[in-house]
Amino acid sequence: MKDCVRGNRERKHKLLTALGLCAALLLSTFTFAQQSSSITSTNDSHSSRDYPKEIRGYKVELASVEVKRSAKNDKKSSSDESNTEALIQLGEPHVKSVSPLGITLEVPVTVAAVKQGGRVDFLTFEDMNVNGTPVTVSEYDHPFDLPNENPVTLSEPITIYISTPRAMLGAIGEWREPKSVWPVTGRVYVFGHFKKFLFTFKRVVPVELNLSFKNPLKSGA
């Protein structure tokens, strides 16, 4: 009789243990699914491109930088609003130099106010196109703090270099159908130390660019 009771207790104990393991497994699966969904939604803008895990000793962080919106944005046009809500904003370009090899433009850069804190060490640019023409943008190696209250124009402009053959092709297109505004697309990598809670992390954040600036070749621009 005692052996029978002991056996029943052991079977109940094993059953409860098995149920507990199943519940824990289901809970962990549900939690992982929630995390995966969150990561997927956060990195949706980066889903079409594969990034390396690390660049120049900085861990790649596929995170969306939260830009603070201003009440003034409501009064702007859709094009201006798109530029204003971007982390990186480009000002009016100026021709710095012209040589047989190409044309160099200087473009002021404004960084939007963001919710995150941190300090940017330098910026690099990749796959940059201006008005459909591939260009070379020099690395910006002037450190600056991320603004948290108001947008800040960086102390030095970026330089955009257009080789002569590409400049000629672009000029031909402008003579045929001149545009008052040139679209600018590409990618900027923001290298720096970013704050999260009480900690600071060394990261590089890729930011896709879809901006515009005034045509420097059009009279009155």
Task: Please give a quick description of this structure.
The chain is α+β, with helices and mostly antiparallel strands and about 220 residues long.
Roughly what fraction of the amino acids lie in strands?
35-45%
Helix count equals 3
Q: How can the largest sheet be summarized?
A: 7 strands, mixed
Global Rg: 26 Å
Question: What is the CATH first-level class name of the largest domain?
Answer: Mainly Beta
State the secondary-structure class: alpha+beta
The arrangement of helices and strands along the chain is: HEEHEEEEEEEEEEHEE
Verbal overview:
This protein is an alpha+beta fold. The chain has two domains: 1-42; 52-214, Immunoglobulin-like. It is 28% helix and 38% strand. It has helices at 2-42, 78-84, 164-176; strands at residues 54-55, 58-60, 88-90, 94-99, 102-107, 109-111, 117-130, 133-134, 136-137, 144-145, 152-153, 158-163, 181-196, 199-214. The strands form three sheets. Strands 1, 2, 7, 8, 10, 13 and 14 form a seven-stranded mixed beta sheet that branches. A hairpin with a 2-residue loop joins β13 (181-196) and β14 (199-214). The longest helix is centred in the first third of the chain and has 41 residues, at 2-42. The chain is globular, with a radius of gyration of 26 Å. The N and C termini lie far apart (100 Å).
